[in-house]
Amino acid sequence: MNGTTGSSQHLGDKSATRPVPSPALPDRLARRLSWAAATGILTSIAIMIAAAAVRNSWEHPYVVMPPDGMPWSSPLHVSLTLVSAALWTAVVLAAGGVTAGLAAVARGARPSVRLVLGAGLVAVAVLTVLPGAGSNDTLDYAAFGRLVVLGHNPYVMTPDQLRHLGDPVGLATPLTWGKLRTVYGPLATAEQWAAASLGGTSAARIVFWLKLWNALAFLAVALGLDRLLRSDPARRLRAHLLWTVNPLLLWGLVTEGHVDVMAAAAGFLGLAVLRKRGDGDPGALRGLAAGLLVGTAADLKITYVLFGVALAWAARNWMATWFSAAAGAALVLIPSYLWFGPPAARALLSRDGQASIGNFYQTLIGSHQVIVPHLLLLGGLASAAIAVLVLKRLPDGVPDLPAIRPALALSVAWLFMWPYQFPWYDAMPICLLALYPVSRLDWLVLIRLAAGTFALMPGNAGFPAQPVLNAITKAGLYYLAPGVLLAAAAALVWLCVTRRWRMDPPTVIPAVGLRVPA
């Protein structure tokens, strides 16, 4: 990336990284790309805002809005056909806008970082006060929280049982996952209980509180990236394009309200805390802080235990740091699981051999099937093998933060190879990738995110009745997304084998970042 700074130390072989580029002045193409990026990103966000505002006119189940206060919605009726076409357009504009923005920055464009960050803050604020749209998961979260408020255990009782009690929140719960108990960690359940306590019997109001905390977590990552990369304008802009103003993430994490963003924020901050000192050893206090935060991430969603594995790997040569990090994680995880008892632990193993729709394993067994023989074994072996390969071949792009590289390697391997995946899971690698230097890995992650988001638009509203749009929906789910995800996995292996990452010099983190006393 042009205009970057940092060490040009040897990493792997010569094909892995590029020499330090000389600063470039933006040319006419860079300016055009900048305008294209701004137009694509802002138009995409505007479409998403409009779709969320009229959520009840096209998505089910219908959610009764509170008579006053947030969330706010519009009574305007819009057809599912129009919304589907608009949201597909938004995905294309989003992917094109982020791509154009990254290309513009690489050619020397330097728009105001404050303006870009401010646009992200405004977009997050507006999407937060609108109803949840694009996914019904937040309604399930609301039901789990309501169960706790009523004195029930969501690891034992299901949303369907809450519905049969005639509870207003239970009646708003979608049928799709109604027979399933919660699969989230105890801290996620506690968060859902807090939202349900504040939201009362209004499912819409409970979802608002859930989205509010998600928005704060999203912004915590944005501000953390801005702080860590403050000495390099080019890399600050790249980070905000990948995270803060990326409409694909704004839709999946803020509009849809998935809990993944809270886990990503806690994990990201935990890995960022583990910074090397002069002698290389981060120290026991940094290890403790990192363990507490990464333990929080895993306690929200268990897949973030991968960050814990990365933390342990990074601290393996410093025993005091290692043990303090382990102690920090244990201080979070053990009491919370003891509180909810064995059912919470059993929820960790509740996934069976079902794959998510649109996964690339469908290309191997038939495009309309979601049950893959020996799926857990197949996905586990594939993920482990690719994790080892990426760990060996991925250059260290952030040497000051030793846990970032193993965390990125493990999360990318899991994201690319595990058969149960949704676009909002991409929060895990993208928050780390934003700290890394520019490389070809950027494009693989963005292409995957765009394909998965397109295939799942507009969400749980059903297939459009219009024949052409119906065909587009099915083609995206059963052919486009699986094909793109398979190609991305193959490309990742190719990058590892050839080491043609085309990576810029390592990111240098300023001496004063996220400070923890040494």
- Tally of individual helices: 21
Low-confidence stretches: 1-14, 513-518
| Number of DSSP-assigned strands | 0
Alpha carbon gyration radius? 22 Å
Helix/strand order, N-terminal first: HHHHHHHHHHHHHHHHHHHHH
**Which range best describes the helical content: under 10%, 10-25%, 25-40%, 40-55%, 55-70% or over 70%?**
55-70%
Spatial shape: globular
List the helices and strands and how they pair.
Blueprint: H1 28-53, H2 80-106, H3 113-128, H4 137-149, H5 159-164, H6 168-171, H7 186-199, H8 203-228, H9 233-244, H10 247-255, H11 260-273, H12 284-300, H13 305-314, H14 319-340, H15 342-347, H16 362-365, H17 375-393, H18 404-417, H19 427-433, H20 440-456, H21 467-498
Helix pairs in contact: 1-2, 1-10, 2-9, 2-20, 3-8, 3-9, 3-10, 4-7, 4-8, 7-8, 8-9, 8-11, 11-12, 11-19, 12-13, 12-14, 13-18, 17-18, 17-21, 18-19, 20-21
Describe the structure.
With 518 residues, the chain is mainly α. It has one domain (28-136, 207-498). It has helices at residues 28-53, 80-106, 113-128, 137-149, 159-164, 168-171, 186-199, 203-228, 233-244, 247-255, 260-273, 284-300, 305-314, 319-340, 342-347, 362-365, 375-393, 404-417, 427-433, 440-456, 467-498. The longest helix is centred in the C-terminal third of the chain and has 32 residues, at 467-498. The protein is globular, with a radius of gyration of 22 Å. The relative contact order is 0.13. Residues 1-14 and 513-518 have low confidence and may be disordered.
